[in-house]
Amino acid sequence: MATDPPLLETRGLEKEYSLGGETVRAVAGVSLSVRRGEFVAIMGASGSGKSTFMNMIGALDLPTRGQLLLDGTDLASLSSDALAAIRNRKIGFVFQQFNLLARTSAVDNVATPLIYAGLPAAERRARAAAKLGAMGLGDRMDHTPAKLSGGQQQRVAIARALVTEPLMLLADEPTGALDTATSEEIMKLFGQLNDDGITVVLVTHEPDIAQYAARRILFRDGRVVEDQPVNDRRRAA
Amino acid sequence: MSLRRTLSGGLVNVGIALTALRTNLMRSILTALGVMIGVLAVILATAVGSGAQVSVENTIAQLGSNMALVFPQPDTENGGPSRDTGKLTERDARAIERSVPGVTAIAPQLRASIQLSIPARRISTGGIGVTDGYGTVTNTDVELGRMVTSADVQAAARVIVLGPTVATKLFGDLDPVGQSIRVDKVPFRVVGVLAAKGSSLGTDNDDVALVPISTARQRFATDLKGPDDLAMLFVGFDPAVALEDAKADLVRLLRDRYSVGRGDVQPFTVRTTEEFQEQSATVTGVFQAVLVAIASISLLVGGIGIMNIMLVSVTERTREIGLRMALGARRRDIRNQFLVEAAVLCTIGGMLGLILAVVAARIFERAAEFPAPVGLPVAVGSILFSALIGLAFGGYPAVRASRLSPIEALRSE
């Protein structure tokens, strides 16, 4: 494993914003790496820079300084189209508010990233249906989000994140809108997916949720202040 | 990017567009209504414009195909205004028939408004005093009975040929031939009924009555002074004759007869059917252009409505745009999505406008007895044009959507 090149590597990563004439350093020099198959929880208070960091590793935002290598590619040098392709093929996003398209069936929601991958309609539907089936939602394919529970909606969103077979799942407070029981269910699902080999990077401010990860990285004032394995890790039963 | 991918992407966008338009159904309908009214106005304007063209062409065709009209008005077209009164006589007509090459027939005329009465009814119509040449020159024939003959002219016979409108007004379905009828209180005998010519430009061509020119001279109240003055002269030419040359010959002859000097205003006017056609084509062309230009303003307003609603749509769906970008949509995917949405909206409006325009044009034709054809090119063109309006007015909102930053968009509520 030690010789395996990291999936994600940052060196002196910085992000500055100008806010009302003042320069704010949201991320102030972060160097870390994430290997394939890891389950990482990024923690920190609001304003710690964890969200800005996540946006950069998610190819949604570009760093001001430093290097950001995803699967060996420096994202800082890419065009907006190339970044869109990285988001499409290599990253699967899961959001706190699920972000499903309203009035659009579960299967069409899951198939949306495949539109941008340029797949024909029949294949899009087949792949989306298969992923929904794997999430245990085979009988809910034509339901719109309004007809699904929060947990079901988040599972549709996870199916959508997985449908392009990405290298990394990037989950931003994925249980923030769910009750405790459903949160546990979703976190166990992430655990299973990680066991199956996918890298999971989880952003959360809840220590309980971070317990499902194998490694915890703590942000404060734009820097990593703690980076260590999770001792009493919670696992899928 | 392959063509197949482009096409499939386009279809996906149509699906997305229809979902989005259904979501705000009332708003979509109202916006499409703007385009619909614009397209309706433009198509109707085009239809009425080309109807005018058709109508004028029919009128000219009914005059006769290769013909010159001579009337006793000073021709001020190439000279200054004239205080002289016009001149045209039967002797001029005979001279033209004799000396101008290519003349096949002449139709000298007197015109007056006349009263026709039978014991039960009284109507007024346009009376024309004609010779036997009238039918040949103007492509006019009878449906019943006979035309005015040279014998009628020689005898100044009190005979009359009725236009179909006049015949129906006076006699209904009865055969008027052989009936007696009073023309300005003098008894005449009906000898024929003209074949119907229909109406053009709102004028009923069948609301006329023909009498021998000699009879008209005796009986009709005209404002002509000389004993053989004419109200009008039609000169028919051989179809092989170039009208421009024929007109030159005719004008030269008349100028000699009236000793018109160089630069003087001639006391008569000559126009050929060719000139009428050109003139009317110009006039109706301008008429149509003005109509369409006015109608286009409503289409422009419709387009602005599209832009307005698309800007609202982009603002409302900022989060969706951010999500799509996170899922891998490139800037151009977002731009195309909103372009297609605007085009779909406009095309729906355009199709509704087209359907309504076809119906309205039919109603207009019936009510106004005026042709208003909606041709296939206009129909197809209007649909394509409405899609184009969608692309033009949807362009700015779509580009604005595509320029959004993914994180800003995702963060919006």
TrEMBL record, chain B:
Compartment(s) where it occurs, according to its Swiss-Prot or TrEMBL record: Cell membrane
Domain MacB-like periplasmic core: 28-252
ABC3 transporter permease C-terminal domain: residues covered: 293-406
Signal sequence residues: none
InterPro entries tied to this protein: ABC3_permease_C, MacB_PCD, Macrolide_Exporter_MacB
GO cellular component: plasma membrane
GO MF annotations in UniProt: transmembrane transporter activity
Pfam families per record: FtsX, MacB_PCD
Main location: membrane
Keywords: Cell membrane, Membrane, Transmembrane, Transmembrane helix
Membrane topology designation: Multi-pass membrane protein
Transmembrane regions listed in the UniProt entry: 29-49, 286-314, 338-364, 376-396
Similarity comment text for this entry: Belongs to the ABC-4 integral membrane protein family.
Protein name as annotated: ABC-type antimicrobial peptide transport system, permease component
Source species: uncultured Sphingomonas sp
